[in-house]
Design a protein that fits this description.
Elements lengths: L14 H17 L2 H32 L3 H7 L2 H46 L2 H6 L2 H43 L2 H48 L1 H6 L3 H53 L5 H42 L21 E8 L8 E8 L4 E6 L5 H8 L7 E6 L2 E2 L5 H6 L1 E4 L10 H6 L7 H10 L3 H5 L18 H15 L3 E5 L7 H15 L3 E6 L10 E6 L2 E6 L1 H7 L2 H18 L1
Parallel strand pairs: 3-8, 3-9, 6-7, 7-8
Antiparallel strand pairs: 1-2, 1-4, 4-5, 9-10
Helix pairs in contact: 1-10, 2-4, 2-6, 2-10, 4-6, 4-10, 6-7, 6-10, 7-9, 7-10, 9-10, 14-16, 16-17, 18-19
Length: 603
Amino acid sequence: MRRAASLPLPADEPAQRRDWQTLKSLLPYLWAYKGRVLFALFCLVAAKGANVSVPLVFKQLIDTLGLTTAQAYVVVPAALLLAYGVLRFSSSLFTELREFVFVRVTQQAVREITLQVFRHLHALSLRFHLERQTGGLTRDIERGTRSINSLISYTLYSILPTLVEIALVIGILLYSYDSIFALITSVTLAAYITFTVKVTNWRTALRRRANELDSAANSRAIDSLLNFETVKYFNNEAYEAARYDEQLKKWIHAQTVNQQSLSLLNLGQAVIIAVGVTAMMWQAALRVADGSMTIGDIVLVNAFMLQLSIPLNFLGVMYRELRQALADIERMFGLLQVNQEVADAPGALVLQPEQAALSFDAVQFAYDPKRTILHGVSFAVPAGHTVAVVGHSGSGKSTLARLLYRFYDVQGGAIRINGHDIRELTQSSLRAAVGIVPQDTVLFNDTLYYNIQYGRPEASRAEVEAAAGAAQLTDFIARLPEGYETRVGERGLKLSGGEKQRVAIARALLKNPAILIFDEATSALDSKTEKAIQAQLELAASGRTALVIAHRLSTVMNADEIIVLDQGRIVERGTHAELLAHGAHYARMWALQQQEAEQAGGA
């Protein structure tokens, strides 16, 4: 199995084996259009056959024109001139036909592979995405997509035609002339290819290092720009520039070494070609001098060598780009080999869209085996009821929401909806039944309408506007010059915290889920905005199964039951009045928060 793209490849694994695996993975996408592929290959051979035939016709013309000038115009058959023109045109015709037919194969393959990688990335667990930097990930996909085009282009349009032409030329030289010409051609090509392969294999490590540094620099830049406000808060523009420059210096050094190695490769290739061409012309000149070859023959040999030397000059470049393309595609295909931590079980059930009863049964979970987050947590949320989970930061409250969405799977116990273990349900139907208003609402850099409709993309405009009205967004949107078409900026930065929360509520209401999660939905808001939002949250939860995760106890007073978590364990449970009367954890948290509120009000 191919390793994940993020892992270094062991030194003892042959590069050729990896390249073959990459090609093997790519071939099915191309062979899906085998009719076009076969026709393109036919056009390729026909184009090169016509191209190689041109010097043969030209030789006949030269030998015929070697007669006296007076006889030349009579003797030169019109058929040779016509054949010369037809072959010239045929070479271009078949080349263009090949590209015309094959371009759709290339683009469809790129589309299908890119879409498959995109879907696979969305199917991976939250753990994978938290451990990877988005900038580096997108750069891997971008380079991989571009490299598929490059690989197919270089292979079908350059390398394969050159190899066909080489085979035809060597065959003609063996059949028509002394074997020395075919031998010189073969030795020259063997030396050229061997030198190119050995030096390019050495350079591949340099290219990969440069790519890694390029991705690292890009990731650092994107990470810094995404945290633009934090950089400004701490006046760290110079610090961020210095960190970015540190990566750029490493990348520049790697690119410099890479370019120097390229110059060495080009020089060696030029020497080999020059020696081969000189040897061929020397042998041809000797035979013309002793009468065993005609002027037409030396023109033919020279034309063949010129035809081969021109693509050979680019063959080294193409080979290097081919190897680089294979390395980039390998990284993208490597993403497809990353195992899904959370996957649907065979024969998974589809959760029916109806009222849902939720239960956590002795749930055990740890992000890291060395530190358990939840210790046998058990509680139930009856259908249509609201249960709140409160506790200090780090007590494991938000982890409950992540487990319910199956961003991770529990390591002990079970989470059930209507009696079904959620691991037995399809992820699609499970997540369709659950809606969330998160603590940090992240919006797409698009319009307000798009961000609300994202809760249910097929919803009509009337339904979107109704959801906005239920979330008390109508007046706000009416005051905007562009209304629903107002763009919210990167991650919704053009909106205030309260406005973003209302969009999140509207989005959740539009989804119309059986289970609603409020994950610290008002913790980032001021008291006035919190009270306004709280009323809307309670209205949104009405008639639904609701799980409220909160730090501020004032937001959960009306819950049917309140669960108090401390260090991943349930330490208390009951209604607001019951817990205050009990005078333990909840009562102390309540008294402390009331005291803080009074001090804030006095200030």
